[in-house]
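Chapter summary example.
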Amino acid sequence: MEIVTGATGCIGNVLVRELLWRGKEVRAFVRCTSDVSSLEGLENQLKILLSGLGKIN
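The structure predicted for these 57 residues follows.
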């Protein structure tokens, strides 16, 4: 399993897509205030982990 921090950013988003293309199991670790629209359409292929200050949902 691969965990990508900053998955909603430019490089993180490309990395997530590349890992999925390679058949990896991906977890996208993003802040709860992040706009996750860049990951739209990938919901069935990865799990999005939302993080706040000091807690993980």
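To summarize the output: Strands lie at 2-5, 26-31, 46-51.
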